[in-house]
Write a structure and sequence with these properties.
Largest sheet: none
Number of domains: 1
Number of strands: 0
Strand content: under 5%
Shape: rod-shaped
Number of helices: 5
Radius of gyration: 40 Å
């Protein structure tokens, strides 16, 4: 009878030890999971910081390029305006010389027309502007009138806007990576807090929330463009 009682007590102790051992085993697995989370946070934070820096550099370069192109476009626009003013003054001088009968001076002025303007001037003469009241007011109103500098100014302006938009897009991408680092910092905080809790359920809850946020951060990083 005593031996039977002793066996029951021994089995009971084994049962209790097995129940005490289970939480310890789960705690070890939880610590391993926390270590994996912390390692992932460290790597992803470094990667996000690197990408944010790269995209910020691209943004700064694009802004600088846009500023340079804008200055070049404004310079070409100013020169185009000066060419336009020269064309108008030259035409007025030619008209005065023609009406006064000074053909030699008129021919001299015509030779000094800019090549681009001379094409439009030749087309304008065909409309008999000195006698035809319906003729265009001047060569600058002819379809043949072109300004290479004005076209270049427009092209540079368009390229400047595109470069500026690339800078904005790069800045936004860099900001996205910065937001990821904030999420990862929260994951790090939750994981560190979980290690301070002795209550197993509370610790698991914090780690679970941290793991979910980590998965979200990984998804964002996987879908964001890379520099």
């Amino acid at each position: 009878m005593a031996e039977s009682t002793s066996n029951v007590e021994f089995a009971h102790r084994i049962h209790e030890q097995s129940h005490h051992g289970a939480p310890h085993g789960r705690a070890e697995w939880l610590e391993l999971f926390e270590a994996i989370v912390l390692a992932a946070v460290a790597v992803l934070t470094a990667w996000s910081g690197y990408q944010a820096a790269r995209w910020d550099a691209r943004s700064a370069a694009a802004y600088a390029r846009a500023s340079q192109l804008t200055e070049e476009a404004q310079e070409e626009h100013t020169l185009a305006g000066q060419d336009h003013l020269y064309d108008i003054i030259a035409l007025n001088t030619w008209i005065q010389a023609t009406r006064s009968g000074d053909r030699d001076f008129a021919a001299l002025i015509e030779k000094r027309f800019r090549p681009e303007y001379h094409v439009a001037f030749t087309a304008w003469l065909k409309t008999d502007p000195l006698h035809n009241p319906d003729a265009p007011l001047g060569p600058v109103f002819m379809p043949e009138y072109k300004s290479e500098r004005m076209e270049k100014s427009k092209a540079l302006g368009k390229e400047a806007r595109e470069s500026y938009e690339r800078g904005v897009a790069s800045r936004e991408t860099g900001d996205q990576y910065v937001r990821v680092t904030v999420v990862l910092a929260t994951v790090l905080l939750l994981t560190a807090l979980s290690q301070r809790f002795k209550i197993h359920a509370a610790r698991v809850g914090l780690v679970t929330v941290a793991a979910v946020m980590l998965v979200v951060a990984i998804y964002w990083i996987a879908t964001f463009p890379r520099a």
